[in-house]
Each structure stands twice: as structure tokens, then as C-alpha cells.
Amino acid sequence: MAHNVFVYGTLRKGERNHHLLADSPCIAEQAWTNGQLFATDSYYPAMILGEDLVYGEVYTVTDEILAQLDELENHKGDPETDLYDRKATAIHTDSETLQAFVYLLVDKQHEVLGGPILYNDWKVHRLFNEKEDYLYFAYGSCMDDDRFKKAKIVHCFQNLIGRGVLDGYTLKFAMKGAKGGAADIVEHGGAVEGKVYHINKEGLAYLLIREGVEAGHYRPAIISCHINGELSDNVLTFIVCDKAEELKPTDIYANEILRGGTGTLSEAYLAQLKEKLKNQFNMLFD
Prior knowledge:
The chain has 6 helices and 13 strands. With 286 residues, it is an alpha+beta fold. Strands 1, 2, 3, 4, 5 and 6 form a 6-stranded antiparallel β-sheet that branches. The chain has a 5-stranded antiparallel β-sheet with strand order 7-11-8-12-13. A two-stranded antiparallel ribbon has the order 9-10. GO terms for molecular function: gamma-glutamylaminecyclotransferase activity; transferase activity.
């Protein structure tokens, strides 16, 4: 029998226990559900019920793999001795809402809880706390350096690694800005190209403000993408939190993307983007 499982900690891609899911189909890399995520006195995070959004991934597993996950999470179906309870709950993705099992720390074990996990995303929390510099995948207006110069932060975006290609995603203008749509990556298949920078904590601090993270406009996320043809893990990007129907971007914003991508993104991708702007929004660019 097949089961959907939502994972938020050490079972995620690139984490220490992901080998248990290596042969299980990944339904969604970008998934979320209601809850709260905390550090513990051990390496792993723990999720409890709550009204926040916890981010993770969804896999389809067999009975055999589910039994292995139960063993890992110390779940035997006895609330008196179990560490985690396994419950079916609603999980949201860019494509659908589905039912999946999630492992929740049982009430009697709440004394192991430490501080909250940054942005309720274990991979983001780890990256920000363990690293001083980051690979950053820019796919929208942050490919252009005009606003970097105006903010006097351009020195943080001088180390361009090259072209990034994010497979399995589509570029959409799904962020409702003050004057029009802003770019987003949506897990709907296809491929999104962008520029990959090597940035430090000063550059990160600027991006968190510019992307409106505290206001809930975008959230930091960790992706795997090809950089100059080679697959790289633990790459930082930003994804729209509350996705809207696609909105027409302003001419200024669209020009920032096209100008910023020229010389790094492929000619085919830039042509595809211009065609999208023409067909969906009647916007014409040379």
C-alpha cells in the first residue's frame, strides 16, 4: 500500500536520514502544513500542533519504508512510550492539497523542545546558523544591479558564480506588488533560469528586507539547482508566500529581469520570457 508522508527535518533532501527516502517518489519539494517547529536538545527538530506554517517535502512510501520511518521516529502506536505520534493531516503544495502522514512530538515529550526554528524551515535554519556565506539563486529583479547600486549594497553581489537552472519549476508573476506582479517560482514543471551569486551575511540581511520576509511577502527556501551545468545543493532563494493569480508586471520591473539576465541566462530562456510577457500581458520587448 502507498502512503504520503510529509517530512520537515532530517528526512529532507541532503539531510542525514534522507537515505531512507532515496528510492521513494518525491511529490513536492515545496510543501507546507499548519504547526510549529522547534529545535530539541538533540540534532533533530520537532513539530507540534500550531497555527504557523511549517515547510517540508512530501514523499510517497511503501508499507516497508513507512515501518522504517516509524522506527526512526520511535513511533509504535503507544502514546505512553512513543516519542512521536503519526497523524494524517492536510498538506498543501503548489499544485494541490492532499492528505499525508506527519510525525508530531507527543505531549509528554514537550520538555525536549528548545527555541523555535527560523521561518519554520529546518533547512533554512541550519544554513543561516551554520554558514557565514551562501549561494543565492536570483530569478527576478535581483538579477539586475540597479537597485543594488542605489542601496549601496552592490559590493555584496559582485561574486557572480554563473547561470543557475532550477528544474521542475515555472516562473510566474504571482506576487501582488504595489504596482503590478512580481516574480515567483512555482513547482509546476519546466525550468527556471537565474543568476547565482556568492553572498555573505550582509547581502543576506539586505535580501531579507528587500524581499519583505518579515511582512510575509517572500520566504527564504533552500533548493538544488544546476550551476554552470553541475548540480549544487543548499542554494538559497526566495519564494512567494501567498501566491496570487498572475498579474502584469510593470515595464520597469520586466526590464530589470531582462536586463539583469542578459549575458548570463540562455538566449532561448530570455526569448521564452519575452514570449510569455507578450502573450499573457501584451508587453513587447526587443
